[in-house]
Structure formats: structure tokens, C-alpha cells
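thought: user wants a sequence for this fold. calling inverse folding tool.
action: design(structure=
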């Protein structure tokens, strides 16, 4: 699986929480807008991407977010107050990728980041993805 779609799908899947508990992210259903910014050691100048998504579920299990994401596994999670942290490891066609992320809820808005390190064809690539999101209203 290409690296960029994996990062985007992880971010979109978790970019609308209003509270966290353990591995579960509680969300307030509705229309959410998320802006994602990526910085890479190999691919410079990626423009921010803004998406809108109607969130209908009231919770996401952080481990289930990896379903269908190739050979990626959430290797650890922790939460404190309204902040959720996680670590992940992936094997993408024999190439390894590790990362960590954090997301904090502020009611109807969120902010977070995910840092990834990938070894690909003898090169190392670091990527940091940050995002903000806000609930716009009902779907």
C-alpha cells in the first residue's frame, strides 16, 4: 500500500473525536472538516489537504482503524484526559515503517500529529503529518 494513502486514511479516520477512553475514540457524529499538512524529508512542498466527512458512528476503536491497511499494527496506546497516543508498525512489501501519533480533543475541534519513519529501497524517509479538525454541524 502506498505510504500517502495509509497516512491519509488514518488521519481521516481519527480526525473527529470529542473524548477518548483507552483505545476507543468517542466522536460526536456530524459533518467534520479536517486539514492535513504533511512534511517529508524526501517529498518537499506537499500542500495542505482539506476534507469533509460525515461521521455517523459514535466511536472508533483505534485498533480497528488498521483493518484493511495492509500489514500495519497498532503496537501501543495510552490516553490521558482528552489526549490519545498510539504507536504503530507496518511491513509494506518488505519495507518497514514505524510511527507514533497523538490527538487531543477540544470539544468541537481537534488537533494532532503522526510521525512516521520508513525504510524504502535503501533510503530512510521521515514524515510528519499534522491535522486540525472542526465539527461544522449536522450532516
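)
observation: tool returned 139 residues.
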Amino acid at each position: 500500500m502506498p505510504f500517502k494513502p495509509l497516512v491519509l486514511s488514518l488521519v481521516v479516520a481519527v480526525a473527529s473525536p470529542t473524548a477518548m477512553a483507552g483505545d476507543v475514540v468517542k466522536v460526536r457524529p456530524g459533518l467534520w472538516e479536517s486539514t492535513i499538512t504533511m512534511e517529508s524529508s524526501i517529498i518537499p512542498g506537499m500542500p495542505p489537504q482539506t476534507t469533509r466527512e460525515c461521521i455517523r458512528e459514535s466511536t472508533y476503536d483505534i485498533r480497528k482503524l488498521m483493518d484493511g491497511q495492509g500489514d500495519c499494527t497498532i503496537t501501543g496506546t495510552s490516553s490521558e484526559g482528552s489526549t490519545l497516543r498510539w504507536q504503530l508498525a507496518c511491513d509494506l512489501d518488505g519495507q518497514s515503517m514505524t510511527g507514533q501519533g497523538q490527538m487531543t480533543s477540544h470539544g468541537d475541534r481537534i488537533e494532532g500529529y503522526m510521525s512516521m519513519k520508513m525504510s524504502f529501497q535503501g533510503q530512510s524517509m521521515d514524515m510528519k503529518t499534522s491535522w486540525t479538525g472542526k465539527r461544522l454541524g449536522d450532516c
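thought: summarizing for user.
answer: Here is the designed sequence. The chain has one domain: 3-137.
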